[in-house]
Amino acid sequence: MIARACWLVLLLFAPALGAQLLLPTGHVGRAEVTGHDVVVVHRAGGQTLAVRPRLRLHNARLGETVWVLPLPAAPVSVTEADPALFDAGPGLHDRLFTLARRQWAARTNLGFAATPAEEPAPDKPAQARAAGATMTTLAGTGPQAIDALARWLDGRGYAPPPRAELDRWAALGCALVCVEFSGGHDLPAGVCVRLGSGPAWAPMPTGAGEQTLSLTLISEQPLELTGLMRAAQQVRARGMDKVPLFNLWSMRALENPLAPLAGDDPPGKWYVNRLESDGFDAAKPDGFGLTFAAGGVADELPGFWYYGDLEISWPERMFREHALAIFFTGGPVLFALLLLKSRQNRRRLRRQAGLEP
Known about the structure:
Elements: H1 2-13, E1 21-22, E2 30-43, E3 46-58, E4 66-71, E5 77-80, H2 85-106, E6 133-137, H3 143-156, H4 163-171, E7 175-181, E8 191-195, E9 200-203, E10 210-219, H5 225-234, E11 248-250, E12 270-281, E13 289-292, H6 314-352
Parallel strand pairs: 2-10
Antiparallel strand pairs: 1-4, 2-3, 3-8, 4-7, 5-8, 6-7, 9-13, 10-12, 11-12
């Protein structure tokens, strides 16, 4: 009871830290979450998400921090993420985006179609060694998880998160995972979280000030366009001033390190979406993550021109690239042939009736 009372007192006088990154009680430094790198592989039976925080440390070391990751439900499993995942996810989207731009440029342009967003500039891989991590999934969800967090932090001498953040996690019924980073490294480790069935979901950073986000969504079904557009506007994603290319698809199996995230009996077609933000206001009281509903055929990328990484024949490629021109030029020609044939038939019938010599 005394320890719990001390912890509640600390809540009232806790320093204004980033909501998800904590330092030991009395530490004079500052630690903040400034963004997330996220890769999600979603299937109907569940999803696996790899999450790595972007951190800003002031007079503090990585090994002194604890990262608290809220989740929408109790996880099936939590492990340390392969650092290569955070390059492989964006790399898959960049490959498909490059193909889409090339196939768009090769099509017949009749001058009234909008131009898709420019090819994204690839991020330079960080030349630093990632830390290891120890993950602890706290018992329960909602208020139970908050009580478990209080005991866990108090036993290790860490200052608690702000009271408003704890109340929000409790009200949303969050499950909580605590991540302790090992010292002597420049980059934080990521975590790989397996969740049960439900819509595709990605955690959002909730620290103070503007946050950044790199999110790659890989799913066996197309995602609903309205949800993608709403999320892109919410995080001020790049390229929204031009026509975005959502639900790009690949007919190839996922390769390592993404393959283990796909589970057993993977589908023959994957849909890939990416949202990247250089800064947005994450101080929103309406949640702690982005949820994406599954879509249908109407949400797929329209037009004959896109065929992704599908191997197709030369005639099919010509048809896909120039289908619009074929329809526009073939239509008048077909109409002219029908008109000519109609006039010939009319003259033949008039001659048979003796109306013409």
